[in-house]
Amino acid sequence: MKKLTVLEMNRLSPKQFKMAHKTPLVIVSDNVRSMHNIGSFFRTADAFRLEGVWLCGISATPPSAEIHKTALGAEESVWWHYFEDSLKAVEALKEEGYEVWALEQAECSVMIGDFKVNPDKKYAIVLGNEVNGVRQDVVDACVGAIEIPQYGTKHSLNVSVAAGIVVHKFAETLIK
Prior knowledge:
Layout: H1 14-19, E1 23-30, H2 35-47, E2 50-56, H3 65-71, H4 74-77, E3 80-83, H5 86-95, E4 98-103, E5 110-111, E6 122-128, H6 136-141, E7 144-147, H7 159-174
Parallel strand pairs: 1-2, 1-6, 2-3, 4-6, 4-7, 5-7
Helix pairs in contact: 2-3, 2-7
């Protein structure tokens, strides 16, 4: 089997990406410290053609060499917005008709395998700080929490890895 070349992959140009139909999903970064994780959010958002990335609190914003290192230019194609406060971002998304979920270990969380994505809805998923997770008041403002089951001695994943898992779950249904 031969690997595909860049030309054989028929990638969209940044201009084509901006004009293309988007997957109705937004990543919300609740005080994510690492610029490499932020860059990864952009790259994942580009890969699944998401509507955007909303950066909140201490989350860094482009332009940044460290974000670019993992985003590989996706920060220039993916639409993004900055909010000082994550709770205000969640409220704004709800006003725009998004169903907002936290990716968090919480009472009554829905395991990702049991979560049913409705193809007729728009979603936003809040991803939290690398140490403290999603702020409690932000979790409270969400419809609920989605949890990725884990079976080892650690009960956390790198936030960018967790983003890839949850975005893929939504994309399976939402990409048309």
